[in-house]
Specification:
Elements: E1 8-12, H1 16-28, E2 32-36, H2 39-46, E3 53-56, H3 65-74, E4 81-85, H4 90-98, E5 103-106, H5 111-128, E6 144-146, E7 149-152, E8 157-159, E9 165-167, H6 170-181, E10 186-188, H7 189-197, H8 205-221, E11 229-232, E12 236-239, E13 252-253
Parallel strand pairs: 1-2, 1-3, 3-4, 4-5
Antiparallel strand pairs: 6-7, 7-8, 8-9, 10-12, 11-12, 11-13
Helix pairs in contact: 2-3, 6-7, 6-8
């Protein structure tokens, strides 16, 4: 039986000696660590790599921890975060939690308590994805209509007007869920891949095309054409059931 992989904790702290001590304590507790002293370096890492948790100071030399979280969100990067800071002001704590941090620990702190808080956040983060089918679709999502067919995520099923009910693959469900949630908006291939597979997934456009062909084939086999789902050549796709076309309308062609 293979041991569970060690969680990777990203430590962003400009006090180098403190950062080193934190890393040593976390590694002794069975975790992996990566230390950065600037937000920009941590941001660059997270745009290309996965980490399980971000341990983040607020006052850093290049920007604040708050700004880093907001920047990551703008880039579609979601990571469990604990602020570890000497800022004890209640307003700062409230702001940190409101922008999405999972916990807020003030200095000085005890290492056993910090490790316990990290493990608690990791457990919550793991359980939060238990219901995920894809990055963007959950088994307990409400049923919805897509081009006259009823999608039931709970059963991974699609029911057509002709009475036929068929199984829908997880990735196909993720694709139609994302399209349905972004009606009338041109969606780039990269955005669709990141939303369904995750931002760090190594998925090529050709693989995405194969799943979309499966969706089209399933609909056509049951008498429905996906006229509202169009390819925007060189960019991606648009699902426009209400006829609300974007400025890229002239580039849209039917498949």
């Amino acid at each position: 039986m293979h041991p569970s992989p060690k969680p990777l904790i990203l430590i962003v702290e400009d006090e180098e000696e403190l950062a080193k001590l934190i890393a040593e304590q976390l590694e002794a507790a069975g975790m992996q660590t990566q230390v950065y002293y600037r937000c920009a370096h941590a941001s660059r890492f997270l745009k290309n790599n996965f980490a399980n948790l971000l341990l983040l100071d607020i006052n850093l030399p290049d920007q604040s921890g708050f700004q880093l979280i907001e920047e990551l969100k703008l880039n579609g990067i979601s990571i469990p975060t604990i602020f570890l800071t000497g800022n004890t002001m209640e307003a700062s704590k409230v702001r940190g939690l409101e922008i999405g941090a999972d916990d807020y620990v003030t200095k000085p702190f005890s290492y056993p308590e910090l490790i316990a808080r990290i493990r608690a956040v990791l457990r919550r983060a793991e359980s939060a994805t238990d219901m995920n089918i894809t990055k963007n679709a959950r088994v307990n999502d409400a049923p919805f209509m897509f081009c006259d067919a009823k999608i039931t995520p709970e059963r991974l099923e699609i029911t057509f007007p002709n009475g036929v009910t068929a199984k829908l693959g997880g990735k196909e469900l993720g694709i139609v869920s994302y399209l349905n949630a972004n009606r009338g908006v041109v969606i780039t291939r990269k955005a669709l891949i990141h939303s369904v597979w995750g931002i760090h997934a190594d998925v090529k456009s050709r693989s995405l095309d194969q799943y979309i062909v499966k969706v089209r084939t399933l609909f056509r086999a049951n008498g429905l054409e996906l006229d509202a789902f169009r390819t925007v050549h060189g960019i991606g796709y648009i699902f426009d059931p209400d006829g609300a076309m974007s400025a890229a309308k002239k580039t849209v062609t039917f498949q």
